[in-house]
Amino acid sequence: MLILTRKTDEKIIIGDAITISIIEVRGDQVRIGVDAPKTVKVYREEVFEAIKTENKAAVASKTSLPKINIPNKK
């Protein structure tokens, strides 16, 4: 893990397309801005964990579709 120290209005550049901006530091909270392409998904950790949990639950549930009787054509 890379650990960096930044001040308000300073940035971190990731690759060619992602910029992390320090917007505000207030007490023990830091507001950041993330500028990334729309193809890059950016989540807060707790949201990402909830998505993973829901995806695992969806895969684990074995929902069966109702059986449909289709008459034979003659």
Give an overview of the whole structure.
By secondary structure, the protein is α+β, with helices and mostly antiparallel strands. Helix content is 22%, strand content 27%. Strands 1-2-3 form a 3-stranded antiparallel β-sheet, with no helix packed on it. A hairpin with a 2-residue loop joins strand 2 (18-26) and strand 3. It is elongated. The protein starts with 10 loop residues before the first strand and ends in a 14-residue tail after the last helix. 0% of the residues are buried.
List keywords for this structure.
74 residues; alpha+beta; three-stranded antiparallel sheet; 1 helix; elongated
User: How large is the share of residues in beta strands?
Assistant: 25-35%
CA-based shape: elongated
Strand order, sheet with most strands: 1-2-3
What is the SS-derived class?
alpha+beta
N- and C-termini, Cα separation: 69 Å
Oligomer: single chain
How many β strands by DSSP?
3
What is the overall number of helices?
Answer: 1
Helix fraction, binned, reads 10-25%
Low-pLDDT residue spans: none
